[in-house]
UniProtKB/TrEMBL annotation:
The chain crosses the membrane at residues 41-60, 66-86. The keyword Transmembrane applies. This is Uncharacterized protein. The keyword Transmembrane applies. Keywords: Membrane, Transmembrane, Transmembrane helix.
Length: 110
């Protein structure tokens, strides 16, 4: 049996009589599906973003004071700006980005 059929089988087996069938149809429109189809630009962009975050994280104390302040401020502004853009549509991302922006401010001493 395929995994989807097995999940439907278990759902039908353990559901109560009269309860609606809870089958999830996956149409393959997620980030992992996008990356599995070998989109090179997505892989390259992800690698560059993670590399920049690591580079800034490792050498943050070696930066001059003005660059440290700018980096912390830019990270905070980006997080709060994206949270403001997604304030009504993506509530969980808004909360996550607001928390991350507050943590950056707290950690950097702003």
């Amino acid at each position: 049996m395929l995994p989807e059929q097995y999940c439907d089988f278990l759902s039908n087996l353990y559901r109560k009589d009269g309860a609606p069938l809870q089958s999830k149809n996956h149409n393959g429109t997620g980030l992992l599906t996008y990356l599995k189809h070998r989109h090179g630009v997505a892989w390259l962009l992800g690698f560059v973003i993670i590399s920049c975050i690591c580079l800034i994280g490792f050498y943050f104390t070696a930066f001059p004071l003005a660059m440290q302040i700018f980096t912390a401020g830019a990270g905070t502004v980006v997080c709060f700006g994206l949270a403001a853009v997604w304030r009504s549509s993506k509530k969980s991302m808004r909360a996550l980005l607001s928390t991350l922006g507050s943590a950056i401010m707290l950690g950097s001493g702003v």
